[in-house]
Structures are given as structure tokens and as C-alpha cells.
Design goal:
Structural class: mainly alpha
Helix content: 55-70%
Radius of gyration: 24 Å
Oligomer: single chain
Shape: elongated
Distance between the termini: 53 Å
Number of helices: 7
């Protein structure tokens, strides 16, 4: 799912990133964004960095990493991705958990046309073809 341009940026970062935090860590053990002593960033560190990035981007609303996850799922749903695919991407075991995102996409839900409309149009079309009324 990672776009090629983002993958390219990450590859460039990997080549040029500071290595002081993971000096002495073998290649396979290195992480792309090392925290203290070359270990993974903690969830708290990631949350703090995310909030700093949001502030730098001029976002004034309160945001969390869960906000990002929720927005990702909602955008996928609004662009027509099947809810079961979204369920798999988010790692939800129950579809009802993923279905919460459908309640957010109200514009999408209100735009759904009833299949009964199509049945009525098909019946009118059939009557015109057979000449009956």
C-alpha cells in the first residue's frame, strides 16, 4: 500500500539517517526510526512526535494516532474499498468493529440508491417492450 514516492523517501532516509542511536547494532537489527539505544520508538514517543508534526502542519484540532487510523479507514471506505478489506487492513476480528467507520461516512450512505428503484424501472422497461400496461 505504500506509494512509490513515499517508499523512495524512506529509502533515501535509510541511507542518510543519523546512526548514532544504533551504532553497533547489526544491519538486520537496525530500525528505520531508532529510539533510545537503537531500539524501536515507544508508543509514547511516536504519539509525541505525531502531535508535534500536527502542530507544525497548522492542525489546531486535538489529534491522536487513533485519529489518523480512523481517518485512514474512513477515506478508504469513502473511496469505495470493500469494508471487509478495511477490516483486514485494520486487523479487526469482528466486522462490527469496522462497521463503526460506516457511521462516519454518512454522505456515502445517503447517496446509496435503493435497489427497489431499479426493480421499478426494470418492470416499466419490460412493459414497454411487451406492449402491456
Amino acid at each position: 500500500m505504500l506509494p512509490d514516492d513515499i517508499l523512495g523517501l524512506l529509502r533515501d532516509w535509510w541511507k542518510d539517517r543519523p546512526t548514532s542511536q544504533d551504532a553497533g547494532v547489526a544491519g538486520p537489527g537496525r530500525v528505520i526510526f531508532p529510539g533510545y539505544n537503537g531500539k524501536h520508538l515507544s508508543p509514547r514517543q511516536i504519539s509525541r512526535l505525531f502531535k508535534q508534526a500536527a502542530k507544525a502542519a497548522g492542525i489546531t484540532k486535538p489529534v491522536t494516532l487513533h485519529t489518523l487510523r480512523h481517518s485512514f479507514a474512513t477515506h478508504l471506505l469513502e473511496s469505495g474499498v470493500d469494508i471487509r478489506v478495511i477490516q483486514a487492513l485494520l486487523g479487526h476480528t469482528k466486522l462490527t468493529t469496522t462497521a463503526r467507520y460506516a457511521s462516519v461516512a454518512t454522505g456515502m450512505i445517503s447517496a446509496v440508491e435503493s435497489p427497489l428503484v431499479n426493480l421499478n424501472q426494470a418492470a416499466k422497461h419490460k412493459r414497454r417492450k411487451t406492449g402491456s400496461s
